[in-house]
Amino acid sequence: MNLEQRIHSFKILSSIIKNFLNNQDDSKKEMDQFNKTINEAFLYNGWFTRNNSLKSLKGICNLIDTLNHSRLKEHFIEPEKPKTIAVIMAGNISAVGFHDLMCILLSGNKILIKLSSDDKIIIPFLMSVLVDIEPEFKNYIAYSQNKLTGFDAVIATGSNNSSAYFEYYFGKYPHIIRKNRNSLAVLNGNETSEELELLGNDIFDYYGLGCRNVSKIFVPAGYSFNQFFESIYSFAHVIENKKYANNYEYNRAIYLMTQEKFLDNNFLILKQEKEQLSSPIGVVFFEEYNNISELEQFLNSIESKTQCVACNFSIDNILTVKLGETQCPQFFDYADGVDVMNFLSKL
After folding, report:
1. Residue 345 within a domain
2. What are the pLDDT digits (tens) for 125-135?
3. Model confidence over 273-314: pLDDT tens digits?
4. CA 255 to CA 269: how far, in whole Å?
């Protein structure tokens, strides 16, 4: 397979997924297989509701569809001999490791997948569909359930704690090791109700489990959250998920017992925090700022801890995405800003 053939195979995969999402699949058997996979994923992991799995599949189509062939070829070097890249996948969002997987297969290398114990259903299914499209991929995809062996490089995604473990065991290999990152939002008080509702997507998509979910909001001093709470009411359904509700109620009880101040609308807690960026499930932190220049300096100082910043106005020297788009990365929006394709081309 050359690069064009590999890209074409992924484009076909995107078309198949879209046909399922749009209920346009001509094959009832294939439609049933998608539905069965999504149902199994939810039975295995209560966070992976049908809506969240569908959202994840839509995100995968977006990754594939935003792949710019000419940009990819700018620094792409076909390997003389395929190398094996071990990928230790996270399990916070269904199929969250797909981007790394796609990069490796497009690069002409082989992938050795270590699935998260929380996400073992959707990735293998999608790979079976890809192999049906292009049988040669079968020789490029393998799984490991035990100790990883026989690889040339490593991509590992985990927490700050697990990253120390990854560094210890895999530091001698070429590697990308990702730690905890958080996504933030900045408001100036001029946002419309529609814009604030879009911010609700950044907060509640995947129940806030992803590093691209907004965990902290920066607001002008004296900001009133009344319009914000009114605008996000359409997301009240999140409390119907037992796992989310348990987290929300637990954190609310803790704050009540410790007599800490917070704002609450019966499905989301807003709590003022000066230092912390990462909030618990069911909670979003907020911090007031006095002027944008000071905030810009602070955001620059925490760049290594930040995945993305959502904002509907420009902030000097800060790369932002629009409100509602934190969970809509394109192909070249690499996690932690690390260019995976460039990493692979230098092996």
Report:
1. no
2. 999 999 999 99
3. 998 999 999 999 999 999 999 999 999 999 999 999 999 999
4. 10
Give the integer Cα–Cα distance in Å for 146 and 154: 15
| Least confident segment among 11-25, 42-56, 170-184 | 11-25
CATH number of 299's domain: 3.40.309.10
Domain end, chosen from 145, 179, 213, is at 179
Pairing, β 84-88 against β 283-289: unpaired
pLDDT score recorded for residue 224: 97
Q: Please state, in angstroms and rounded to a whole number, the distance separating the CA atoms of residues 141 and 92.
A: 22
Q: How many domains does the chain have?
A: 2
Which residues of the chain form beta strands (DSSP E)?
Answer: 84-88, 110-114, 141-143, 153-157, 175-178, 182-186, 214-220, 263-264, 269-272, 283-289, 306-310, 320-321
CATH of the domain at 27: 3.40.605.10
CA torsion through residues 337, 68, 198, 15, sign: negative
Instruction: Give percent above pLDDT 90 in the chain.
Output: 87
User: Both 206 and 67 in a single domain?
Assistant: no
Q: Are residues 31 and 172 in the same domain?
A: yes
Convert the pLDDT of each residue in 134-171 to its tens digit.
999 999 999 999 889 999 999 999 888 888 889 988 99
127 and 211 in a single domain? The answer is no
pTM for the predicted model, two decimal places: 0.93
- Structural domain boundaries, residue 137: 3-179
Q: Do residues 134 and 140 make contact, with C-beta atoms less than 8 angstroms apart? A: no
The answer to whether position 10 is within a domain reads yes
Residues 330-347, mean pLDDT to the nearest whole number: 94
- CA dihedral in degrees (210, 326, 279, 39; nearest 10)? -30
- 27 has a pLDDT exceeding 70: no
7, 63 in Cβ contact below 8 A? no
Tokens of 12: 């076909």
**Same domain for 151 and 228?**
no
Q: Assign 3-state DSSP to the chain and report helix, strand, coil percentages, each to 5.
A: 45, 15, 35
Nearest residue to 93 (alpha-carbon basis) of 57, 63, 68: 57
